[in-house]
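Example (one chain per record):
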Amino acid sequence: MILEDDRHIGLALQIRLRASGYDVELASSVCEAQEQIQQSIPDAAVLDYNLPDGNGIDFMKTLRACDLGRNIIIVIMTASRQVGLRDRALESGASFVLEKPFDSATLLNCLRAASPIEFPDQSDVTQPLCNSASNTRRSSGSS
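Predicted structure:
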């Protein structure tokens, strides 16, 4: 699932992830995403932080509250430079936090690093795993 209110960004991410073998649903609002999760819980969710009807962290908490949503890979993406946002997202259960703009290969690396599924073709991914100062993964010891 991609939850992104900017249509161009959402479509670009959807195209890139589908080309890499992911089955991706796109939602442009929290309301639309909530309708989608009523139908099925995704294996992974890429959530924008700033949305017209809420934010990605609150929606992530909704996903995490579902029994089937506890193990979802969740990437929060944001252009916000709000102090403490990254820490708040990770402490709330985000698998990764990516600051916009980011390369789609970085997103793919995050999803692949957190996925129990092996992906045979990783030749197109040249970016380091999400461990730089601007792209952080929640440590396995966090609550």
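Caption: The chain has a mean pLDDT of 84.
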